Amino acid sequence: MGHGQEKTGENVDIYRDTWVRFLGYANEVGESFRALVPVSLVWGSYAVSTAYVTADAVDKGRKAAVAHGDNPGRTTRVAVAVVDTFVWQALASVIIPGFTINRMCAASLYLLGRTTKLPLPVRKWTTTAIGLSAIPFIITPIDRSVDFLLDSSLRKLYNEGEKHK
């Protein structure tokens, strides 16, 4: 679905156009809180994001299967839809933003410790606030970068004009 198109009840993508999309950002929230919570909660946030990515990929495969009916090449088209969606979402929703927020928070905590006299709990909460506030700013550049990366590599392999995101 292209940008700027109106979404009607029938063509709303639950994984892209509803609150469900925010589940893809669970690991960034987890990374933001890493300094304050047990690491098991951070890994739990990755489980939520990975479940979201997998569910979206399965959904796009199902939609491709319905769209291509019994036509020749149906299996290939379904596989392309699943792989394209899973790889795009894994990179754009989990791996790259998780790494970005992790490093941003680690650097913030380190720099606050080296340059301020703030007590450790204040430094940890400040780091968490920095991580959370960065999330909205990193999403679009990462999404566009992953589009470029896949358009320049994986998508050339299956010569698929349409994106499954």
Automatic annotation (TrEMBL):
GO process annotations (BP): mitochondrial fission
UniProt superkingdom: Eukaryota
A Pfam family the protein falls into: MTP18
GO cellular component, one term: mitochondrion
Family: Belongs to the MTFP1 family.
Protein name (record): Mitochondrial fission process protein 1
Organism: Iconisemion striatum
Lineage, highest ranks first: Eukaryota, Metazoa, Chordata, Craniata, Vertebrata
Gene symbol of the encoding locus: MTFP1
